[in-house]
Amino acid sequence: xxxxxxxxxxxxxxxxxxxxxxxxxxxxxxxxxxxxxxxxxxxxxxxxxxxxxxxxxxxxxxxxxxxxxxxxxxxxxxxxxxxxxxxxxxxxxxxxxxxxxxxxxxxxxxxxxxxxxxxxxxxxxxxxxxxxxxxxxxxxxxxxxxxxxxxxxxxxxxxxxxxxxxxxxxxxxxxxxxxxxxxxxxxxxxxxxxxxxxxxxxxxxxxxxxxxxxxxxxxxxxxx
Length: 224
Prior knowledge:
Structural class: mainly alpha
Strand content: 5-15%
Number of domains: 1
Number of strands: 6
Helix content: 55-70%
Shape: globular
CATH class: Mainly Alpha
Radius of gyration: 18 Å
Strand order of the largest sheet: 1-4
CATH superfamily: Rhomboid-like
Number of helices: 9
Order of helices and strands: HHEHHHEEHEHEEHH
């Protein structure tokens, strides 16, 4: 397994285990390492990086790491470790940045008119609620990896459960992007997934790949 992919897997798993241990001592690492809304008291600029290594549960971690192992190692073998790590981190930071913008729009359009929020369990001050707006997970960077694979190997057939037939990588990526776009605008109650962060990772990934294609044709269209 390529070095960067392997180390990213190890770091994510170790941080997840550290989160479980910290919880047993009454310490919530997401309060410090998760990405908070930038108007919240708990926000720190370093969280744009640290949030990528936090996960909300085992399932969240497993699927992100499975996709990293499945597609990330291929991109690293093609790009090399430095470019792959740069791509991963920039897209993850970009996903967090887009998430901050989306939260700010929601704040300006809805929350700014109130001084408190009814959570369904209690009424809490707005400042406390803003601190609850926390994003965790590597999903933004992972969606960028999916996009990268789809752009480098657009016609590679993939078997996606539960589809009984293979689907080309380019259609798989487009389908995922459309699902995330729909879910983001649907804004269903109880849906706590950062759909626009996923799209943000894909957007930054697309920009980077197109820039590299223009700058260096040898790192452009790659494989059919």
